[in-house]
Amino acid sequence: xxxxxxxxxxxxxxxxxxxxxxxxxxxxxxxxxxxxxxxxxxxxxxxxxxxxxxxxxxxxxxxxxxxxxxxxxxxxxxxxxxxxxxxxxxxxxxxxxxxxxxxxxxxxxxxxxxxxxxxxxxxxxxxxxxxxxxxxxxxxxxxxxxxxxxxxxxxxxxxxxxxxxxxxxxxxxxx
Length: 175
Description:
Blueprint lengths: L5 E5 H24 L11 H28 L1 E4 L2 E4 H23 L14 E2 L4 E2 L6 H27 L1 E5 L7
Antiparallel strand pairs: 1-6, 2-3, 4-5
Helix pairs in contact: 1-2, 3-4
């Protein structure tokens, strides 16, 4: 970080550059381990490998910082509203899990999938059967609306990732 630079970058570029530098860092760590022991006919240089690791690890951190700033500055449309891409990224996982909960509510028969024939909707003492608290129709409607929400978040993120934003302090050579 000798000189202050900036780069116009998309989220896709940041993600792919980050992926490449993580691979370089992991390979440098592996090569470092291998360089700690040497046979008499070999020459290995652990300090060089450690330097390669440090360079790659530093570049990963720089790119992660740039990615966070990119996601904070990038406003996207989700449904009928706007939010930062950072918020959408944090919300999309929960939205997918919420959708899955309602989908599974439709197909849940009360039987515990981890048991051997136990039926959670039946009381052993009186053979009383429990009834669903939410109708399949309601659960399907909620699954559908939550699927739309998750889809809107993923679409907004995908569109946002294509947008180029100027990130100060980012050396274009890292991309």
